[in-house]
Known about the structure:
Blueprint: E1 5-11, E2 14-21, E3 28-33, H1 41-48, E4 53-54, H2 58-71, H3 90-100, E5 108-109, H4 110-116, H5 123-131, E6 144-145, H6 158-167
Amino acid sequence: MKIPFYTQIFTAFGTIGIVWRPTAGPSRVQRICLNPDRQPVADVIRRIYPDAQQLSSPEIDRLGSHIQRFLEGEAVVFNLDMMAMETCKPFQRQVLLADYEIPRGHVNTYGNIAKGIGVTGGSRAIGQALAQNPFPLVIPCHRIVRADGGIGGYQGGADMKRALLMMEGVAFTDRGTVAL
């Protein structure tokens, strides 16, 4: 397997890393690293990919630009063609693809996703699969909330998840939960 490369993009939500590998076709994004603790994203990436080297390419720069525009509030629809979905286990891939279908400005619950893919009582399993989402933002796991409207967890932290949902126009109750 080729040595991975990474690119950093700078956003209002902190520095975000895109880890990718070149291929004969389009580059394959291995992971998008959010940075809720504001630690150097390069350090986070090197812990996971010790041999990673900083480099970019026009197609990775385009993806970075799309992510920046998305985080500025633009309605960006991401393409999954560059995402290395093959690195995910089948169950996680099924969860991520169901999540990908949730349109901007809408939410779904962990339980509804479980039910939709035929995993009765699988809310916790859905949450675990999303907690390991290697492609946050591109696959919008911030759009999945708890059945009671609580926002649940997020790799970028609760503040980022709430901000993304608000930016997309999701309504919140006076109690601070998502209005379902």
